[in-house]
Write a structure and sequence with these properties.
mainly alpha; 5 helices; globular
Length: 68
Amino acid sequence: MYDRATLISAAREAGDRNPSDTARRLKVARNTAWRLWHGRTAPSAALAVAVEQHYGVSAGQLMKRTTA
């Protein structure tokens, strides 16, 4: 399960105040960044690579294990 709090925390540490800042940094559409910030979508593999490059957060850190 995608952990949006991890992304938001890393984005804020990098100076991003809102999804628009994240969209500019990651070079994605504002609506994509908004969906990531609000947990409506999980990052694709390519976007996870960009998150790691810009924020230092790996794909593994973005995903939480769910207990069954």
